[in-house]
Amino acid sequence: MDSFLFLKLKSSSRILGIDFFNGSLVDSIRLAKLGGLVVAPSGPGLACDLLQCHFYEKSLLKADLVLPDSGLMCLIQKLSGRKGIERISGLKFLQYYLRKFDLEDSSFWIMPNLSQDKANRLWLLDNYGLNVKDDETYCAPIYNKSGPIQDVALLAKIIKKSPKTIFIQLGGGVQERLGLFLKENLEYNPTILCTGAALAFLSGEQAHIPKWGDQLYLGWLFRCFFSPKLFLPRYVKAFRLVFLLFKYGEKSPTI
C-alpha cells in the first residue's frame, strides 16, 4: 500500500459517520495532490445539510479527503473527552495549497458570480502570479438547494481542458454535491478542491478573516459581522451540532 494512503487510513477520526483526516496540514496537502475529491464541511453543513440532504452526506462519504474545518466540532471533541482532532480550516488549507502550487500545472476555477470571478482572478495574479485565463474559469448557475447536482455544460468544459486541479469556490452544501458529480463523471482523477468561500475571504469579496481569527475558530463571527442577515440564521442553526456530537459521537445521525 502507498505510504500516503496508509497515512490517510491511520490518521483519521470517525465523527458522525464521516472519516475526517486527523493529521498535519503538510500531509493533507500531499494526500490532496494524489487526486480525488477534497471537502471541508462546515459546522452548519454538519448540523443541517448532513441531516436534510442525502446527496450532501453521500458527497462526504465518497470524498477522498475530508478536512476537519469546523472549529465547533473540534472543540466539542476535546471537551467531550473523545479522541481529539486537529482542525485544518478550508482557508488555511487553500493558502498553503496555493503556496505550493506549481504554476505550470493546469487548473480550472468554478466561481459563484462574475464579481468574485474578476476579484479572485486578480488576487491570484497579484499574490501568486497565477494567471487564470477565461477558458479556465466558469461562473456557476444557481444550483438546486437539495438533491443531486448535474451540470453538463461545466463537465464538457472540464473534459476539454483536463485540468490537474479543479478549484470549486461555491458555498457549503452546494460545492460538495457538485464535486461529487465531477468525481463520478470524469474519466480521470484530478484533484477537486471544495474550499468554499476561502478565496473570497482573501480577495476581499467576503469578510476578511485574519490569521489569529481563523486559529481561534472565529471565522464564523467575522462572517456574521460582514453579512448578518445571511450568516446569523445559518450559524445559529449550527449549534445543533453540539447536540448531535454528544448524542451520536462516531455514529451517523442518519441511520
Number of DSSP helices?
Answer: 14
Strand order of the largest sheet: 4-3-8-7-5-6
Mean pLDDT: 86
Q: Write the H/E string, N to C.
A: HEEHEHHEHHEHEHEHEHHHHH
Structural class: alpha/beta
Catalogue the unreliable spans: none
What sort of overall outline do the alpha carbons produce when their principal axes are compared?
A: globular
Distance between the termini: 31 Å
Number of domains: 1
Beta-strand content: 5-15%
What level of helicity do the residues show? 40-55%
The profile of the biggest β sheet is: 6 strands, parallel
Question: What is the radius of gyration computed over CA atoms, rounded to a whole number of angstroms?
Answer: 17 Å
Number of strands: 8
Secondary-structure blueprint:
Elements lengths: L2 H8 L1 E4 L2 E4 L3 H8 L3 E4 L3 H10 L1 H9 L2 E2 L4 H9 L10 H10 L7 E5 L2 H15 L8 E3 L12 H10 L3 E4 L6 H11 L5 E4 L3 H6 L7 H5 L3 H8 L1 H11 L1 H9 L7
Parallel strand pairs: 3-4, 3-8, 5-6, 5-7, 7-8
Antiparallel strand pairs: 1-2
Helix pairs in contact: 1-2, 3-13, 3-14, 4-9, 5-14, 12-13
